[in-house]
Design goal:
Blueprint (H helix, E strand, L loop, with lengths): L4 H23 L16 H25 L9 H20 L3 H17 L8 H24 L4 H23 L12
Helix pairs in contact: 1-2, 1-6, 2-3, 2-4, 3-4, 4-5, 5-6
Length: about 190
């Protein structure tokens, strides 16, 4: 099965939106808070903090994924990405003061991609930074998958585990780049 970069980017964004919805259902107490963070959170308040941080980071990542996967022409959205770069730097500072080092690392993955899209870094570096972003995201999602599979709830193991496995495959596809087309051999 072959998918193109844009389809992979759309898939990651759709899975992020699904995950955001799951976190919102926990925040609104429709789903139990044990359904997130491997079922290891001790209170609803801790779940709200975790869910809120995760939601903000996923919302932050959507324009990064859209740019890096080629869903949008970044040059056409330069002003948006200048604002998004400022947002990313503020988000990193907030996450740092919240002692969410993993959050700072995840957000920092996309900063070079955003900087290129904003015109702060030369555009010719875009593909390099996008590839680095995808490889780092792949590693992070693999670690997240491991955490899901070691979770204490069936929801975390089955549903969220499946989602992160699919995300990992899509990030891997994007990180390795488009495979070179093999020449077609014609029979004589």
């Amino acid at each position: 099965m072959r998918i193109n970069r844009k389809t992979a980017g759309k898939g990651i964004i759709i899975l992020n939106i699904f995950t955001i919805c799951m976190f919102l259902l926990v925040i609104f107490k429709i789903l139990p808070y044990e359904f997130i963070s491997g079922g290891r959170l001790e209170s609803y308040d801790a779940a709200v903090r975790t869910a809120t941080t995760s939601i903000v980071m996923m919302i932050y990542g959507i324009p990064v994924i859209a740019a890096a996967s080629g869903l949008i022409r970044v040059k056409a959205y330069k002003k948006f990405y200048i604002g998004w770069l400022i947002f990313a730097l503020i988000l990193m500072a907030v996450l740092f003061f919240e002692a969410s080092i993993m959050g700072v690392i995840v957000v920092s993955f996309g900063v070079p991609v955003i900087a290129v899209a904003a015109g702060v870094i030369e555009y010719k570096q875009f593909n390099l930074f996008a590839k680095i972003y995808f490889w780092l995201s792949f590693v992070f999602v693999c670690l997240n998958t491991l955490g899901n599979l070691l979770g204490t709830t069936w929801f975390e193991k089955i549903v969220m585990g499946l989602i992160t496995v699919i995300q990992a495959m899509l990030y891997f596809y994007l990180a390795r780049g488009n495979p070179k087309k093999r020449p077609v051999k014609h029979k004589k």
